Amino acid sequence: MDTTLVKFSSTMKAAAVGGAALLILTGCAANEAAPETGDETASSLTGTLSGAGASSQDAAQQQGWIAGFQTANADVTINYDPSGSGAGRESFQKGAVAFAGSDRAFKAEEITAGPFDACTTSDIVEIPAYISPIALVFNVDGVDNLNLDAATIAKIFTGEISKWNDAAIAAANPDATLPDQAIVPVHRSDKSGTTGNFTEYLAAAAPEAWTAGSVEEWPTDITGGEAAQGTSGLVEAVKGGVGTIGYADASKADDLGTVSVKVGDKYVPFTPEAAAAIVDASPLEEGRGANDLAIELDRTSTADGVYPLVLVSYLVGCESYADPANAELVKSYFEYIVSPEGQDVAAKAAGSAPISDSLREKASAAVAAIS
């Protein structure tokens, strides 16, 4: 992809916040090789749709959903700025973008407080459309895989465990040659839904070792280690460091060492299937609107084949849009994303887990309510 086009994302965002919300740009995904849609019917949709948010969704958005949707709808341009979950939610609330991608659902009190400037009411649609494991990635010479339990992971990121040959790590990895080397934990410097999901897992699965709760911004009282901006920045910091470890959407794990997480009395490596399994085993949050499909993940499950360190990233839109053009485009785009075809192209582009048929039925009903 031409790097000059990538720069349009930040430019678009700055202009949007200034009031020019939906710029007519050529989405960078328009130049990606698009998958065949199999739909030869000419589309009547036209216009430009802008969204922003979770960087975890970026590969699925740019190389999967946008490419596929624009192939089927040649007169539509979609722009997605992977500015981070927090920034995306804020932009959506201000009406600077028509939809957001977020690695967590809006909290009930945030919805009550509002406002949502692109919407005519405070009722929003939240669709869990992107399911992916969060990978613990590390860079230790001669070590490709490690087994770790939640308490050990928590102690690594708080600095309580500071050497790679610590007894707790060695006990779970008797066949690994662990160096007498400092551990350098890397966390996100920006407000991040990935951080929120990671710390939610630690708070649920290792509450005695991790006392900071579920937070999207790294706790200021945990010192040491390194901080990096965005998913790509964190992965690059782990790659470029020595003895580093961090957490990132599994689609970005590349050739780094990875961790199998203890579930019950087994160590489970991340896979899309294991991530999907924990989502299907978890209920929807109570007290939400009919079209707000926030999932209450069971991070402490001991069921076979589940991977609890998972990221569920949401599409967020209005139930009722002030601009009918936005309503039409968002509804059509979301319909494509939750379809079997849309989920398949995301899986190929980003290694995500396609949503189950039962979740798709709920998601399709929520999308149908958009007007």
Low-confidence stretches: 1-39
User: How many β-strand stretches?
Assistant: 11
Give me the secondary-structure category.
Answer: alpha/beta
* Binned strand content: 15-25%
Topology:
Elements: H1 3-17, E1 47-53, H2 58-72, E2 76-81, H3 85-93, E3 99-102, H4 108-113, E4 124-139, E5 145-148, H5 150-158, H6 167-172, E6 184-188, H7 193-205, E7 226-228, H8 230-240, E8 244-249, E9 257-263, E10 266-268, H9 272-280, E11 310-318, H10 324-338, H11 340-350, H12 357-368
Parallel strand pairs: 1-2, 1-3, 5-9, 6-7, 6-8
Antiparallel strand pairs: 3-11, 4-8, 4-9, 4-11, 9-10
Helix pairs in contact: 2-11, 10-12
Tag the structure with descriptive keywords.
single chain; 371 residues; alpha/beta; D-Maltodextrin-Binding Protein, domain 2; eleven-stranded mixed sheet; 12 helices; 35% helix; elongated
Plain-language structure description:
It is elongated and about 65 Å long. The protein is 35% helix and 19% strand. The chain contains twelve helices and eleven strands. It has two domains: 3-132 and 285-295 and 311-368, 3-Layer(aba) Sandwich (D-Maltodextrin-Binding Protein, domain 2); 134-277, Periplasmic binding protein-like II (D-Maltodextrin-Binding Protein, domain 2, 3-Layer(aba) Sandwich). Strands 1, 2, 3, 4, 5, 6, 7, 8, 9, 10 and 11 form an eleven-stranded mixed sheet that branches. Helix 10 runs antiparallel to helix 12.
